[in-house]
Amino acid sequence: MIKATGLGSNRPLSGQLYKYTNVVKGWQQRWFAVDPETGVLSYYLFDGPGDTVQPGQPARGEAHLAAAVICPSDEDSKTFTINCASGDMLKLRATDARARQEWVNGLRAIAEIHTKAMGANPPLQPREQLAVHDAMASARQQLQATELSDAALARCIESSDSPFPHTDPDLLLLKATSAASMQCLLQCLGILLRQQQYATLSISKTSSNDH
């Protein structure tokens, strides 16, 4: 279970999650921790009950949450993904639906803080870049609203009055099309966010060289 959640917490967001590695290894148990000050998500080798992460233990991997898109999966009630601005994607699974929602809420709050910080008044940033940053923030909000609508559609189909909601080809096609469109939008937003990040870094380097 998560130790700390909340926008204003100065303690790491941490707990046990399962990380999908590959088809051969499948799901691997890991200990995850997020430092809200740096926005870095780290994960460690973790064997389960009785095992602990030792102070100074090197992380198995890290990812920065700035400009990351965190999205619950529609394949079950426990899985969610983190699409990082670097292009990396983490597929994770919580212990239950409630834990997943706590993780998603906590990670999104931290990601939002560091996404804003990443684009907040870089040296000599053109007005156009500020406009792009605002547009990206709006797109993220719209995408999260779309994600909720997609989940509501899936629930509606599953609770449909149709005697065969899970085999009706039209309902299955509608659900699959909605889910595929959602994933496509997430990937597009990830690409745009990476382009924005690279542009911001390029402008900052140019400004530094000019001085």
TrEMBL record:
Keyword Transport: yes
UniProt keyword annotations, A-Z: Lipid transport, Lipid-binding, Transport
GO MF assignments: sterol binding
One GO CC annotation: cytosol
Record InterPro entries: Oxysterol-bd, PH-like_dom_sf, PH_domain
GO BP annotations listed: lipid transport
Segments forming domain PH: 10-112
Keyword Methyltransferase (UniProt): no
Annotated protein name in UniProt: PH domain-containing protein
Upper lineage: Eukaryota, Metazoa, Ecdysozoa, Arthropoda, Hexapoda
